[in-house]
Amino acid sequence: MASYYDIDDILAEEEFIPVVFQKAATGVGLLDPSSETNNIEQGAKVELPFWLAHELHTRQAVVMSIPSCFNQMTKKEIQADPGSVDLRNRCQYFYELGCKLAPMVSDRTIGSFLLYAFKNRYKEVLSKAHTSTFIASTKPLTLLTKEETHLCDAAQSSMAAFKKWRIGGSRFERPAVLGKKRKPSDE
Amino acid sequence: MAGQSDPQSSVFSAAEMEFLAEDEIIEVVPNMRMEPLNLISGDYGPFRPQIAAQVPLWLAVALKKRGKCTIRPPEWMSIESLTQVLESERDSPKEFQPLPFHYVEISRLLFDHARDDIPDIYMVRSLIEDIRDVRFHKVESGLETISARTHAVKLKNLSAMEVNIVRPFVVRTLQSFYKHDSPEMIQQPVQMSTSRPQATDRGPRRDLRRR
């Protein structure tokens, strides 16, 4: 689904991931705000955007750990009440990032956790997307991640288009050229 | 499909659905005399006054606009059959009643162009609205049953417009579920401390969920 030009895919890779450097690195002190020199020591804990952490991970320079949106507390909250957890605030690209992260971290439960979260949030919020009016749905909308918002939008826009057609109005659009008066030509 | 207004989302606009519905055949009673029309889609006519003829809906509407015919509303648009459909729609919460595939579009075209040919138009109109509401509610409660193991959704007797409304949502939902349920994402079904029923007992991935 993710294509090279998919802006959501690009933005999802901007999310920060806590990593631990396995090797000392020179000249990249700007990645670690707490470092006094221009170097990063072995064992330093730094937050890096996913695209950088991923590259370093494949070269075994860093070990990724789990960002806060997948920690134990969030899992507990989602198990308690999936529909009312504010995932947008924690990580807009919760599902996209989770999918990318799952094969790389030691925690094997992320994949099934994502499915569990999506399944239950779908039941509570999204399956009502067609009929819920805009006013009623603004509140839950602020809790949704990007992927869920796209779903909601798809449902509501198709319903809105249908309602517009049913109410009717002019069936034919008058082409703009027809109404205009012809300009008197100079010749 | 070529000619869609929005090729990205694989959905027809309502006006395009209406255009497709105009090919349905309907009965008209002309009040003029005309030779048969030989069109690519078939021959229609000949037209004799007071002798009913079968024509496509677009032709019927065109003749009606010129005052050359009256349109006979189809069988299913009578109050009796609509009341019956509405009752059985309400009685069976899982199934949809057979109605013409384009019933939403046909009824709107007739309401717009042939109001004087439909007896009890207000009653018919509100019956059709009710039927559509009941059916859409059924669709929506059916959507709730989509879960990780749903790989196809069977919707018997659903009409064109109803399918078209839910299409963008359903396609995206199924895609998301497919992505999150793929075997690469669920590596080992490790039990977490609390109960996670969906992680255990994962059946084969190809079951067709009946709705």
From TrEMBL, chain A:
Family annotation (CDD domains): GINS_A_psf3, GINS_B_Psf3
Instruction: State the compartments where it is located.
Output: Nucleus
* DNA replication complex GINS protein PSF3 N-terminal domain boundaries: 5-56
Q: Which Pfam families match?
A: PSF3_N, Sld5
Top-rank taxon: Eukaryota
UniProt domain GINS subunit: residue ranges: 73-165
Keywords attached to this entry: DNA replication, Nucleus
Q: What is its main location?
A: nucleus
> What does the entry give for GO biological process?
mitotic DNA replication initiation
**Keyword check for Repeat:** no
One GO cellular component this record assigns the protein to is: GINS complex
Family, similarity comment: Belongs to the GINS3/PSF3 family.
Q: What is this protein called?
A: DNA replication complex GINS protein PSF3-like
From TrEMBL, chain B:
Residue ranges annotated as compositionally biased, kind Basic and acidic residues, are: 202-211
Q: Where is this region: Disordered?
A: 185-211
Alphabetical UniProt keywords:
DNA replication, Nucleus
Q: Where is the composition biased (Polar residues)?
A: 188-198
Concerning SUPFAM superfamilies, the annotation shows:
GINS helical bundle-like (SSF158573), PriA/YqbF domain (SSF160059)
Q: How does it assemble?
A: Component of the GINS complex.
**Family in the record:** Belongs to the GINS2/PSF2 family.
Q: Any idea where this protein resides?
A: Nucleus
Indicate whether Nucleus appears among the record's keywords: yes
The protein's name in its UniProt record: DNA replication complex GINS protein PSF2
Q: Where is the GINS subunit domain?
A: 76-171
Organism encoding this protein: Spinacia oleracea (Spinach)
Lineage per the UniProt record: Eukaryota, Viridiplantae, Streptophyta, Embryophyta, Tracheophyta
